[in-house]
Amino acid sequence: MMEQKAKKGNELFSWIKSIVFALVLVYIIKTFFFAPYMVEGASMSPTLHNHDKLYVNKIIYSVSEPKIGDIVIIKGTDKRYVKRVIGVEGDTIQVHSDKLLVNGKQVKEPYLSKNKKDARSLGVYLTEDFGPIKIPKGKIFVMGDNRLNSMDSRNGLGLINISSVEGRSEVVIYPFKDMRQTK
C-alpha cells in the first residue's frame, strides 16, 4: 500500500515537472525566438490586413541586420507598428513621380500595384515626392504598403532605431484561409 502511494506521488511529481518544463520552454521560445503579433489597422494593406495574426521571428536581427523589403515589427513608445523596410543605414531614399529610388536606382515594388492603381483612379500618386534622405548609422526608413493611409518614417514615426525593431514577420497564421508567408 505504501509502495502504491509512493509510486503515485512519483508519477504526479513527474507530471508536474513535465508541465513546468513545457511552460518554461514556451516562455523562452515566445520571448526570444518567435512570437505572435496581430496587425492593427490598414497601413500594410493589401499585403497584410487588419486583425491578421502573424508569427514574428525575434532572433533574426541578433544575427543579421534588417534588409530592404523586410516586413518588421517596431516597438513604439505606446504601441507596436508593422511596416516595410525601405532603406537601411548608408542608403539615400527618394520618391519622385511615384517611383522609389534607393541610392539613385529605382526599386521595383510589385506589392504596391493594386494600391497604385487605386491611387491613380483618384488622380493622385500613391507616394508623394520626398527626399533625398540619407539614412544615418543605426537607423532604418520604413513605410506602410498602403502609403495613402500609413504613419511611417515620412510622417510621424521618423527614422527608426534598429534597436526598436522587435523582429521580422514570417507568416500569416490567421485567418487560416489566408495562411501564407509574408514578403
TrEMBL record:
Transmembrane helix found in the keyword field: yes
SUPFAM superfamilies per the UniProt record, alphabetical: LexA/Signal peptidase (SSF51306)
Swiss-Prot/TrEMBL keywords: Hydrolase, Membrane, Protease, Transmembrane, Transmembrane helix
Ranges annotated as spanning the membrane: 12-39
EC number assigned by the record: 3.4.21.89
Protein name: Signal peptidase I
Species of the source: Fictibacillus terranigra
Gene that produces this protein: lepB
Broad enzyme group: hydrolase
Family affiliation: Belongs to the peptidase S26 family.
Main location: membrane
InterPro entries membership: LexA/Signal_pep-like_sf, Pept_S26A_signal_pept_1, Pept_S26A_signal_pept_1_CS, Peptidase_S26
